[in-house]
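User: These chains co-purify. Model them together.
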Amino acid sequence: MKNIEEVTTQVLQKIRPSLVESEKLMRLANRLLEVVKEISRNYEGILDARLEGSVAKGTWIRGREEVDVFVQFSKEIEKEKLEKTILEIGNVVIKKFGGKTRLRYAEHPYVEGTLDSIRVNIVACYKVEPGMWLSAVDRTPYHTDYIKSKLTGTIADEIRLMKAFMLACGVYGAEIRVGGFSGYLSELLTINYGGFSNAVVAVSNWRPPVYIDIEGHYTDRKEALEAFGRPGLLVVDPVDKKRNVAAAVTDTKLSEFILASKMFFDSPSERFFYTPEHVNRYRTMTEVRRALRGRCILGLRLRVQQKPPDVLWGEIKHTLKGIRRALEHEGFRTFRYDAWSEGDLCVMLFELQELNLPAYYLHHGPPTYLANALEFVKKHSRAQDTVAGPWVSGSRLYVLKSRAKTSVKDILRIRLTKGDVRVSAGLMDAIKRVKIYKSGEEIAKLASKNINFRQFIFEFLEARPPFLARHAQ
Amino acid sequence: MKNIEEVTTQVLQKIRPSLVESEKLMRLANRLLEVVKEISRNYEGILDARLEGSVAKGTWIRGREEVDVFVQFSKEIEKEKLEKTILEIGNVVIKKFGGKTRLRYAEHPYVEGTLDSIRVNIVACYKVEPGMWLSAVDRTPYHTDYIKSKLTGTIADEIRLMKAFMLACGVYGAEIRVGGFSGYLSELLTINYGGFSNAVVAVSNWRPPVYIDIEGHYTDRKEALEAFGRPGLLVVDPVDKKRNVAAAVTDTKLSEFILASKMFFDSPSERFFYTPEHVNRYRTMTEVRRALRGRCILGLRLRVQQKPPDVLWGEIKHTLKGIRRALEHEGFRTFRYDAWSEGDLCVMLFELQELNLPAYYLHHGPPTYLANALEFVKKHSRAQDTVAGPWVSGSRLYVLKSRAKTSVKDILRIRLTKGDVRVSAGLMDAIKRVKIYKSGEEIAKLASKNINFRQFIFEFLEARPPFLARHAQ
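Assistant: Joint model of the two components:
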């Protein structure tokens, strides 16, 4: 078995860009910035333009190059004006470089382009004093400056290791779909612990709630945690004491990160740095059918409208929970659920204990000493769907009733039709036209429709985070 | 609909013995008493002999005549001597009257005989001062005297109504099998409320805990309830302030009594006074098969040793609970259970939600922040019976496992073999040779073996107390 240093040395050789590659990327980035600045002069209220993100900090991973140019507007400029202006500038700049543009949405729309197969983002923000934030990205220039001030020695490489580790372990990315660790957060953690290895050792010993406050904005851990509502992970933003940089990290991703760190520390290996895409091959229908054997899988296939991913995934996650709740309320046991989306398709999967409920169920009545005991007896003694009873056990009445429907498809369909499932308003229409599938041939049929959901279905059935995937063992 | 008075008047005509019948019974009782007294003179340490029970009090129901003769021993006589003596006296007396004798067991053995188809019991007790009780039946003469002192007006008839009502509703009898109301308790309740109708109205409004203290032994209801451990029903014995006459009444029987009273008050009818034996006919196998349809019934057939009923039924009830616990622990849902016994046979029935567990089950692991998370992952990642996972959800690890056995018969058999079910020591041997049956044809086969368990199985499937039985509606 290799030790941690041997592993990280080898990984770094793969993920650290060469000097030539670095210079090429920096040249592109600086030329872009110059052009953005030049064009910006034609607009009123633009105060500056700067490089942000991993290029500005020199912390990117080879193969994941990305250039972020931020245009800083005066706070006098209205939101609509800012949005209109950034789209104009972005389109002109990208076209000037001969790239293709795409409109993207975060809090504000921005322009994404691809130049020499490198992703470029032209983003607008307000130039404001710390704490006077007008939009979520106004902090970014301060984050860049803060990280740059800490980049001594080989810390940039340590950050690369951290990002590659998080990526491969499936916990990287603050978008709602992932609920993981942002780039900035990965940088802060590495800086806080003085390197990747130290950070992994520390994380492997984390026991939430975890409190990190690099700049010492708070003096009392307990007070700080209370102030943020006791999150599992609190990393106070060095440039904004009121912000938890880890606010987007879900309990699951935090726990996966802890487990991945424990496993890496226990048996260091390069596999912890290779993203699943590198190793996962597409699965055949035979493999999917084999994995489905004996499983109780419920699948929903929706056609969704185009919308910003964080909006869509917020709706998807809320709807997943609503459906799970409805299923549990009907008496089903839900082991797990997950969703996948691409273009206008969305697939939701639920693994259940059973796809059909027992034909009969126990119905609890009131204690016999209550006045409504008599009503209960009268109602159920004669009811068509009473199988046995009423009888008395302890102080209560009980009756055995037969279910009108037992199949999860029928039961869910009825509840959805009645509007008796908590569904996001944004998915209401899609849910009305939902297709419901259940294992085994029905889910296999669903898997056969698209190679990407086939892959998702297979991974759902395997149910292991990337760092525990079978091929990685 | 008849009113309560019309109903009770009619019922009384049926359950009140005629003058001729009364005189005949009293003649027999007094002749018996004389002979017992005569023979007792041959033994040392016998102080007196008296009539007890419903004959002594004149509160018996027509058709349920029974003569109790109590021989009162001096407290100097040892237990063994008392037991030997009462068996001698009992046998001599019954034979002298030309009847057949049978040895019976309560706390002490006693002699039961049948004369002119009337049951006769010759029982031993110690003659002691109140509170100095040496055996459970020493209180009986005091109970008899107390009740006789209260029998003014028509109260004996009111008691007859109460007993007939309790009998027909299935709540009469303090033996462990029933867990219901003793004759003395039925008398005290009737006396306390000044008659049957008043008592039924009061009971229909009971909300446990119920506290009745006719002689005012306690001044504080709360204190009295606490002193007895907060039973559902506390009726302080007028002749012994430390005894709860209702100690043997289970919550279920108390609740059934309340419900039966509510129902009778709601729609008075003679059917509340007819015992099930009067109305229930034996069921055909076709009826049993129809009732079994879709039901999940587990049956156990045991051969038990002869022993006093209260001992056997204590063991049966304890064992029923132990088996239920084991089934629930394995993941089965138990709706109800009950048992039946006759001679050396005992049948236990359980109604379950399902007879087979799902092939796969969710196994909960530790939170990832604990040290043993790694062990869990290593163990389950490679285990043969791991179907999917391990995965992380919230802070915990989970894994989907496959069950070695899914059938309730196999699973229960394995646990019984391993000694992993809490079974009464007295039934241990019987359980080792238990036959296990499950619905539908297996239970039908069980039902076909004996007309009495067939009847029990049918009533178990119907699952209604007598006062709610279908034929009674």
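Chain B touches chain A through 57 residues (CB under 8 Å).
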